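Priority: medium. Attachment 1 of 2:
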């Protein structure tokens, strides 16, 4: 009996440690997933954003404005939010560190002209 309890405790700890890793953004293939807010296919990866909840549910968006509207509508807190670097679609930036600009020079999928950059200097050519 004692061995079964010890075995069960070890299994629970192992599962717990495996799930404690740092959450990372998922890479998508163009057109693979629809936006969690507007249901458009995510095809322009320069604007792809991701949100993961504290319960582990992951949401994908085709634009920053969809992410913002989704958060306002659902009124919940996210564990992590990643934005794609407008200049490098293979690079994700956390929302806290991203430089988000609004520009008429940027044509985002939903038309708000929002884009995320890694540095302020990267965003200068796109500002008015």
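Attachment 2 of 2:
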């Amino acid at each position: 009996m004692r061995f079964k309890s010890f075995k069960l405790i070890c299994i629970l700890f192992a599962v717990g440690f495996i799930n404690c890793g740092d959450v990372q953004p998922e890479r998508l293939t163009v057109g693979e997933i629809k936006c969690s807010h507007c249901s458009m296919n995510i095809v322009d990866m320069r604007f792809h954003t991701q949100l993961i909840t504290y319960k582990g549910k992951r949401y994908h968006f085709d634009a920053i404005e969809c992410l913002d509207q989704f958060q306002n509508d659902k009124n919940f807190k996210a564990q992590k939010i990643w934005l794609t670097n407008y200049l490098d679609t293979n690079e994700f930036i956390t929302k806290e560190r991203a430089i988000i600009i609004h520009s008429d020079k940027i044509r985002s999928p939903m038309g708000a002209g929002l884009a995320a950059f890694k540095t302020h200097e990267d965003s200068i050519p796109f500002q008015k």
